[in-house]
Amino acid sequence: MHFISEDLDDYIIKHSEDEPKLLQKLNRETHQKILQPRMLSGHYQGRVLSMISKLIQPKTILEIGTYTGYSALCLAEGIRLEGELHTIDINEELYDFQRKYFDLSSYGKQIHQYVGDALEIVPKLNMNFDLVFIDADKENYCNYFELIIDKLNVGGVILSDNVLWSGKVLESIKPDDVDTKGLIAYNALLKNDVRVETVMLPIRDGLTISRKK
Ligand SMILES: C[S@@+](CC[C@H](N)C(=O)[O-])C[C@H]1O[C@@H](n2cnc3c(N)ncnc32)[C@H](O)[C@@H]1O
Predict the structure, then answer these.
(1) Cα distance between residue 37 and residue 117, in whole Å
(2) Where are the domains of the chain?
(3) Cβ of 160 less than 6 Å from ligand 1
(4) What is the pTM for the complete model shown?
(5) Is it true that domain 6-162 has CATH number 3.40.50.2300?
(6) Does ligand 1 lie within 6 Å of residue 117's CB atom?
(7) Which single residue of 12, 80, 128, 152 has CA 20 to 30 Å from 61?
């Protein structure tokens, strides 16, 4: 869904950083070979993720929802030399595709993949994070927040994707639409939880930045 006109969208992309060559290749191969390529962050949002990560210069990054590795590689662009990125996806079939592109990048050794349900894996990660990207399993965004908040360093940032859910957060919800219900509850949680300060950005499908106080 376009929240602004396609012409303005094109203008914004033209006046932002180009998509790096490796990510162009990953983007193309995802569209050729992998189901649901629309899940990939893509050129513009990828550059936003890269810029935020470069501004934060995180030592440790957590990503929930690797898919084909596009956003992981964007976030890795800001990581410190000694830093690590930990990324989780429930779909084991994506593992080799992700690893191929991680190893083609300069961050291969810093990126650690986990296969399984993030709800089970996050509690087992014995580390703190400077930057977290939540981009999977909309129904459980509130649960991910509760699992992450104590592992987030003060000043650390949570980026949450798809918070506008193609505008469905404003519509009447079908009883079985657990994703929209989950996102509406999550957006309210971020606004009201005193542990974070939050700004929602109308980027692509909605991207929220929350900073731990
Ligand atoms: C929207 S895609 C992630 C896109 C990726 N972050 C990007 O921007 O290129 C969501 C991914 O979450 C994964 N996923 C769904 N439920 C999950 C869960 N409970 N735990 C971990 N990963 C999950 C899916 O397999 C899918 O690859």
Answers:
(1) 21
(2) 6-162
(3) no
(4) 0.98
(5) no
(6) yes
(7) 12
